[in-house]
Known about the structure:
By secondary structure, this protein is mainly beta. It has three domains: 8-161 and 351-375; 170-203 and 208-336, Jelly Rolls (Sandwich); 385-502, no CATH class. The chain is built from two helices and 33 strands. It has helices at residues 8-22, 82-87; strands spanning 26-28, 36-38, 50-56, 60-69, 73-80, 89-99, 120-122, 130-136, 146-166, 173-178, 202-203, 205-206, 222-223, 235-245, 250-261, 263-268, 271-275, 303-307, 315-325, 338-358, 361-362, 370-375, 385-392, 395-396, 404-407, 413-418, 422-429, 437-444, 449-450, 457-462, 478-480, 484-488, 492-502. The strands form five sheets. Strands 3, 4, 5, 6, 7, 8, 9, 15, 18, 20, 21 and 22 form a twelve-stranded antiparallel beta sheet that branches. Strands 23, 24, 25, 26, 27, 28, 29, 30, 31, 32 and 33 form an eleven-stranded antiparallel beta sheet that branches. The protein starts with 7 loop residues before the first helix and ends with a strand.
Amino acid sequence: MNKRRLNYTLSLVAILSFLLVLGLSGCTTLTSGEKDFSGPTRGFGESSPDTFPLYAGQTISVGEVQVWNDSEKVCVKYQLSDDAIAEGWLIYETHFAVGATLGDIPQVKKGNPIPGQFPYGDDDLDGVESYQECVPLPAGVSCDDDIIIAAHAVVKKVGTFSECLVSGDRSDNVLLLAEDSENPGYPEGYTASYQTYSGDTTPSVVAYTHLSWVGISGVEWISSSRLTEDTDYNTWRLFTRNFDIPDNAFNISGTLTMNCDNAEQAYINSIFVGEDENAMVYGESIKDVYPPSGDAHGWSTLEGPWDISSLLKPGNNELWTMTRNYAWSSDSYTNPTGLTYKLCYQYDLVTEKETAWGGEVDFPGKNWATYFTYTVECEEPTPACSYETAWGGGTEGGGSTWWYYYDTSTGGEQTIWAGQDIDVGNVTVSGCSDDGKVTIEIELTGGWELKDVAEPVKIQGYSKLPDERPSAGLFTTYKGTSLQVTVDCSKYYAIHLDVQLCK
């Protein structure tokens, strides 16, 4: 790192003025935006911070710790590498300490650091790729002083897993229900809301499939038996299925798609998901509806996908589906029933957890832990510059506005005048050569230099001088940045310069 030995007091004044102009009041995390820190959002050095490796489990390179400072704050940023992020690593905790000496870092007597006692960081991050915080410099620290930083983190590797549950042979338990004689249009023991169930269930079987059913590709239709029982009567079938999501899963999401002949109503963990909006699961006793076709019969419409993300949970989950088959005086082949569905879910799971440390210098204790040394930088103050228009030559031009020109009949070294009366250098024009050329040499003195613009030097040759100051923007003899040019011979030269003096 380049060390700049500058006046620290002047740097402090410049920085504070800069911050007041921009209205920058604090550094924030680059992650959630929930925590506000007092300190600059851009201190000198942030654009090219010092970097130190961040290792997890001693040998796994997961990123770097970036450090920069201003006159009052030092900023520490944990940044995972693109490769680590691609592998699933995220930051869940940070703890860091800053001291003038190693002894300022919380440690046990044997030299092992105590991250839980580090004063800075956040131990409740929700899995982030980077974390930044700006904190006060240690007392008494000045330009080019070394400070000690111990940067600890907890990182976890997260994997995404997915699974789809589909209807099929023995996929569900089934409870066959007859119509309630006292409540026609409802199954025995059930009303229109979710209820716990009791009774003898049997494993689902693959049902006889009607060719006109609208199903889900690659998914089987299921029922309580291959052929419909009691086709002359309204019947209901309660399908239940339990499935497990790992206890430590998070970011769980999922969808459910289904269809039934004739109608279905689905619940996840006792919470209503959706139903066939055209056919009726509960209500009005239906018999001998003819012809048995159209949306009102349900089997021609596919329901979903329903978003069930908010209903899924780590651990055991239950899919509860009540289905209804309308009564029709026929046989099991002309009045079949069945349910088909696909339930897909995905979740994140921590597959690896490691302690991480920034830097490569070991603490004196036996436990693995590292730190690094950072050298406090000073801001280079912005130079204060004066800008002037200058004319080269010893003869004052005509008109109401001041200007000078170079007269070759006088020749020799002539003064360059800025702001009318400031001597900023000299100009010399050589004698005309046999090929009709002269060389003009310009020398700036006293710290004056060309202004950083596209064409600070403009020259125009004349055989007869204008009556007033010419417009330098219209000069054609030369335009550019060179202080030595070769041009066609002329009797007079107007030499215009844009100059500056910076301190």
